[in-house]
Every structure is written in C-alpha cells, then in structure tokens.
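Q: I'm teaching a short session on how sequence maps to structure, and I want students to see two examples side by side rather than one. Could you give me a first protein with its sequence written out and its structure tokens following it? Keep the formatting plain so it prints cleanly on a handout.
A: Of course. Example one:
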Amino acid sequence: MNELAKERLPLLPDRHPTPDFFVCDLMDAAPKGDMASMQHPIFSLSTKPDHRVRRYEHGEVFVEVKPSSDGLATVHDRDILIYCISQLMAAMNAGQPVSQVVRFKAHDLLKATNRMTSGQGYEALKAALERLSGTRISTNITTGGQEVFETFGLIDRATIVRQTRDGRMQDLEVRLSDWVFNAIRHQEVLTLHRDYFRLRKPLERRMYELARKHCGKKDEWKISLPLLQKKCGSASTEKEFRRLVTNIVEEDRRFHHIPDYSVELDDSDMVIFRSRGSVPASSAIEQIPLRGLATDAYNDARIVAPGWDVYYLEQEWRGWMAEAPRDPEAAFVGFCKKWFERRGRPG
C-alpha cells in the first residue's frame, strides 16, 4: 500500500455512483445554487451548534443571520436547498409549471447529495430541515429584482409526508421562502460540480462557492485573505484562518480535489483561484445572439439607467453573466436597473 493510500483523502467516497446526477421524477437535473447565498455568508461553517447572531456588511449590502435554539443552518444543510433548486430549474427548463412547494423522496435527496442512507442519514436530514426553518435572515440583497428588508427563513416549512414502519421518512414536502423562490424564478442560479457534495470541509465548500460565483469561466480570480475570511463568514482568528486555508491549498496541490478551480496562497496573502477548464462549455455569451438584443430592451435600459451608454452596459452585462438567462432582454434591463441603483449617473 503506497503512502497516499494510507492517509485519508480530502474527498469523501462517491457513495452512489450513477451516470445521472439526480434521480427525480422531472428529468436529469444538474445541481444548482442560488447566487445570493453563494456570494454572501448565509450559512455557518461550524460542525457544532452555532448560536451566534452574525451581521455581514459589504458595500451597501448587509446580511444579519439569527439562529434558532437548534443553531444556525450550516453549509451542509444547504444541500437541501441545492436539491430543491435543481429540481425546480429542471422543471422550468422543461417548460413545466413550478411552485414554492417541492415534494420528493428523502432517499433520492440523500443519494443525490452523497449522504448516508442509514438511519443516521435520515436523522441528520431532519435536523438540517429544522435548522433551515429556524434560521432567520434580514437583508437588503436583491433577488429577482426585489430588495427584501424583512426577516425570513430559508424555508417556510418542511413536512414529512409519510414514514415507513421503522420510522424512517419517505416523502418530504419543503416550502421554500419567497427569497429563495424569487432567485429560482429569475434564474439567478449557477451550476455546481457534482464533487461539491464530496468535499469534507465546510470551508472548502464555501471557498468553491465563492470561486464559482466570482471566477466563473474566467482564467483566475484573486481575493485577499482577510476579505475571503469575511466572505466565508469564518469566526476563526486571522492566524487560524490562514492555517486552515494553507492546509486546503496544500491538499489541493497534492490531490487536485477542489472542483473546477485550483487554489493557491501567495506571499502577500492573496488567495488565487484558477480555472481547471471544467465549467460547462455552454456560456451565456455563446447562447445570446451577438447581433444584439431587441430594440425595446435598449430603450427600456435607457429609462432605468439614464445617462449611461447602453452598449457599454451590454458589454458589462455579457461579461458578468455566468449562465444564459431564460429571457435575455428582461435580464439585461434588470442588470441596468441594478447598475444605476448602485452607481447613479455616470461621472
């Protein structure tokens, strides 16, 4: 047995190898996460009950997260949202109607997210649902063109529809919050690599989410270590956070286990993510006609972003997108509106 075989590998084993990512009633569904919670630290990195009230501010954006008696929702609890978002996006892409209530088999979710299907796996799923329902968020993050200034949960409720005789749950119903559902309806989501669910460490998952959101299909993305810690929502000391990131960097250098991106830490405390070229090849720019958008879209853009060159904004929009929107014209106008709200008139 060689030395690598003797030590614990950084990726969990693939417990349910299958050519299809999700086995669901709709269609094969690629895993997807909402952009807002990928960009901002909504979920706790702790593997123990986290009862801190956290407030994150970056520019004009703020997020305040309050736990229930069960603690904050964790990065691993996010798996449930990813599963629900993926099913709804698959239905939308197939032209089917969707609603905030998602019904699925617990066993399918456990397999799709690479979790154990033993009794322990079902109990962990119940606990995750309780944390997702109990965690309350106040924020002004925009989803679907709406700015939310209210307190809400990540899910409104979860119902175990049926249980087997041995007490294990079978069917579940999850009602997503308006905030999450708005992101789905406006396709403010990104596709995740399947190996995301095999990453052992919560910090690795969080770093991948940030790279997927900010690096996308670009060759590389750099971020300072202090800002990365802030965006990760880590409660570690600066020294401890540097040690944790350094360990991840060293493991990735040896095993290349971080999906889609390699990660490095240079001498100036800059964390550098470089694309491995594995992000799905169908880019938003390729799917939107280069000849331009409909004339009405440019006219509407001039109204919502007065003073700005709409063709300049179009270039910024095309470079910003990671995936093609369902309605390019509406998405472009929405982008221009947000641009103007944040920057005002040019000059």
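Q: Perfect. Now a second example for contrast.
A: Example two:
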Amino acid sequence: MRHFSLLLASALGLLLPLASATAAPDPAALFEAKTVAERNAALATLEAAAPGDPASAYAAGAGEFFTALEILASGLHRHGFESPQSFMLPLMRLPVPDNPNPEPLTYEEFRAILVAFRDRLEKSAATLGSVPANADIGMVLDLTRAGIDLNEDGNIAPDESFAAIIAALSRNGASDGPVPSLTFRFDRADGYWLQGYAEFLMAQADFWLAHDFRNMFDGSFHMLFPRAKLPLQDALVPLDGGSSGGMLASEWRIADFVSLVHLVNWQVVEPERRQAARRHLLEMIRLSREDWKAIRAETDNDREWLPGPQQKGENPLTGLEVGEEQVQAWLATLTMAEDLLEGRVLLPHFRITGKGINMKRFFDEPRPFDLVLSITGPAITPYLESGKILSSDDFDQIQREFGGAGFLTFALWFN
C-alpha cells in the first residue's frame, strides 16, 4: 500500500503541472494591467492559448484591436499631434496628450504609422474571426480599469482608460470632469461588432495608403503637427505654436484646413489597397449582420454593450434603448450600403440627372482622387452609369426610424 501511495503521489505530481499549464489564462491580466510590459506579456499568453481556447482568442483579438489604437496614438503623440476634433478626419480623433518635446515627422514616417496601425487591425480581425460562432463568451470588463498608453511613458494611467477616452471624445477633447463608471459583459455578438470596427478602420487606412498624399502632408499637416518640423512650419505656424483645440479654433487653422481640402488631389500608388478598402467595407457589413443575428438570439440582459429590442433598459454608454424599428432600419441600411458597394445601385450626384456613380468601379478601377472635383463633378464622370439610382427618399425613410437621436448616433454605435 505504501508503494501504491508513492506511485499515486508521483503520478499526481506529473499531472498537476500539466493541468495548470493548460488552464485557460485570465483575461483580467490583459485588461487590468497597469504597465505596457505587463499588458504585452498577458497578450502574448492569450495569443499562445488562442488556437485551442475560444475565450482566449476572443480576449486576444480585443487586445490586438486596442493595441492597434495604441500604435496610432503613440505615433501621433511622438510627433506632437494636436487633435482636430473633427468628424472629417476620423482616423485622428484620439485625445492624444500634449507632447512638449515632439520629434520631427516626415511623410514616410506618417505612412509607416498608418501601415503599423492597419496591420495590427488585420491581426485583430483574424484572431476575432477564429472564435467559433457558437462559443460561450462572457467577458466582464470595467472600462475605467482598462486602457492604452497614450503618451508613451510605458504606463496605463486612469486618465488613459477607455472610459476616460470615451468621455474626452464626447466632450470634444476636454479631459476634465469625472469619468463615468462603465462596466459591460462582452459576449459573442460583441466580438462580431469589434471585428467589424477593425474592418471599418482598415478600410480608411487602406484608402489613404492607396494614394500619394505627400503634397497635402507637406502643405497642410503643420496644422496637426505644429512643432514637428514640417516643411511650412516656419512660414505658416504662429511663433507661439498656435492654440490647441478644435479644427476651427483659429484663423491660421481655418486657412490650413482650406489648404488641406484643396490638396486632396491624390495620385494612386497602391491600387490594390483601394480595392481592399471596398472588401473591408463589405466584410464590415457581413459582420454587422452576424452581430444582429447573434444579438437577437440572446435571452439574457446582462450589462449589454449593444442590446437588442428584447433587452430593455437605457444603455449606460448612450442613454438609448434599441427598438425593433431601429434594427430593421439598420438592416435596410446595410443592404443599401452593400448594393452601392457592389454596383447594383448607383450613388446620385446633385448636378447630374439620369446617371449615377458606380461605387464598385470607384474602388476597383482607381483613378486619382480629387475631393473638390469629386464634389463639383469632373472627377466622378468616369464612374457614371445608367441604372437604378439611390434616391433621397430611400435614405430619408430609413433616417426617420432613428428618431431624435439621429442616424449618425445609432450608426456609430451599431457599426
């Protein structure tokens, strides 16, 4: 009996390390880390476990998405970025802290920041896409405890939490005032939502990278990086560096914004990226449908990030409830967007009758992109066709279903 006990003890001694080595890692180490080093170590552990554990893949994909935002924010901060707080530059709305000693920035370095950001998003989308549709996911996350390093000091401080970032964006960049407590239980549906946002942001990055926008960068980006030694800094930026804040906070920024719009005359240098932008948008549409399919199948109502009509109560993030009419209107919006991107329906232009713009050809047969001439008409004439044209009545009918909060509020939330 004594020999059997020793044998059993030895067997347990061999099995216990194996059991502990294969136990699923805790996502809390990723989302509650106080330093970048701790966060990166936790992310590496989750990535290693992801192929055999859906919960680890889900958490790792989310971590890769947020570190993509950190790559962008860190790159902007390094060169003294001042947020324009403008919906017209959605890739650059992050509330990046001031940097008193920015490094010089070149066009090539800015493109490299966009490439790194876009490639990390692609990794995130692939990891989230590996999570099975029927995976049982329930990841509780306090957005005041999770965040990213915005100022490159290696720490993840309370004012860099996701809750603080959301609050700053809602206040148009102001960081004062209390940060609301926001805790959500993220489920399988929310994985589709985040993967869709990764595709949406990749589409934006790829569209920029498809073109040579050097002239715009050299001629106007001192508005965004006023102390990064851009070519016209000495001539056009006020000696005091100008005032930070909104895009239209000063006369010199208004002038530079006009220059920026005028200089959006971009030659195509990587046509495959413009084609990829359309594919990302189509994938975003597919994922949004999967998201709502999963949301409507839910029977619980537990701290929902994006609730369905059956999950009653105001959402703590938006203060809104989701009704069946909004879901139906959103699904109709997805169909409309897909029809435009596939060229089944044409986009109207205010000064052209009888023909519309084929958006599939706009992406798949790229020509130089001139913003002003696209608005006035000449630049879009190569894409004009006869066919079914989207009418304003079609879109107005959808907009009415979103009520007082408006279509844009729901669109940003629904993705």
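Q: What should students look for in example two?
A: Point them to this: The longest strand covers residues 352-357. Also worth mentioning: The first helix runs from residue 2 to 22.
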